[in-house]
């Protein structure tokens, strides 16, 4: 099992599998009771412990912890969430962030890039719990490859700008992640977020 940042994990016995030196807030237990899904954080996986984050009902409610790999019941990558276009059947399809998924599908289909939704949209599609609102951005994860030239990046950003919601595309590579918006500006250095923290690089690939 290859586990990467932004992946979603369904836990077994979620409320009792958190590994953390901190006191667990009450809202964390309530959140996991409603939906036992967590998001993989960008940090090292050590001794079989996966860094995860718990989402609360409020935007400011985020809790970092670890879980053992054997606590994972289901593992979902962002790109799996678009394969069946299930958002089209969602009664909340009229929300701008969901409508923007169709724009991303249309824009990226010619570039042979694997991608999927992250953030609140990804969490809702995976867990079934309403987390998206009318003001939500659409965060997407793109798996970087040789097709993501500077010219292509600039075209993609221009086209994504026509979507109903603001789209924040992050490009994932073997070394870390970077903002496609920042990359499209063609200036150096650029910030690369790695599992050991952010660094500045001239070539994010």
From TrEMBL:
Protein name (record): Phosphoribosyl-dephospho-CoA transferase
InterPro entries to which the protein is assigned, alphabetical: Holo-ACP_synthase, MdcG_C, MdcG_N
Domain Phosphoribosyl-dephospho-CoA transferase MdcG N-terminal positions: 4-78
Stored NCBIfam families: malonate_mdcG, PRK01293.1
GO molecular function per UniProt: nucleotidyltransferase activity
Segments passing through the bilayer: none
Entry keywords, A to Z: Nucleotidyltransferase, Transferase
Residues of the Phosphoribosyl-dephospho-CoA transferase MdcG C-terminal domain: 93-204
């Amino acid at each position: 099992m290859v586990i990467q940042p932004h992946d979603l994990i369904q836990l077994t016995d979620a409320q009792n599998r958190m590994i953390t030196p901190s006191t667990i807030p009450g809202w964390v237990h309530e959140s996991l009771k409603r939906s036992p899904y967590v998001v993989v954080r960008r940090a090292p996986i050590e001794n079989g412990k996966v860094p995860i984050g718990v989402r609360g009902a409020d935007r400011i409610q985020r809790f970092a912890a670890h879980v053992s790999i054997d606590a994972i019941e289901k593992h979902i990558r962002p790109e799996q969430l678009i394969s069946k276009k299930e958002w089209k059947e969602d009664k909340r399809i009229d929300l701008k962030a969901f409508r923007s998924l169709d724009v991303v599908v249309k824009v990226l289909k010619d570039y042979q890039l694997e991608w999927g939704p992250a953030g609140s949209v990804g969490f809702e599609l995976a867990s079934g719990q309403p987390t998206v609102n009318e003001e939500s951005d659409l965060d997407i994860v793109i798996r970087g490859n040789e097709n993501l030239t500077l010219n292509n990046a600039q075209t993609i950003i221009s086209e994504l700008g026509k979507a109903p919601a603001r789209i924040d595309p992050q490009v994932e590579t073997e070394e870390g992640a970077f903002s496609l918006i920042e990359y499209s500006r063609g200036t150096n250095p650029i910030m690369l977020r790695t599992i050991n923290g952010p660094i500045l690089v001239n070539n994010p690939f």
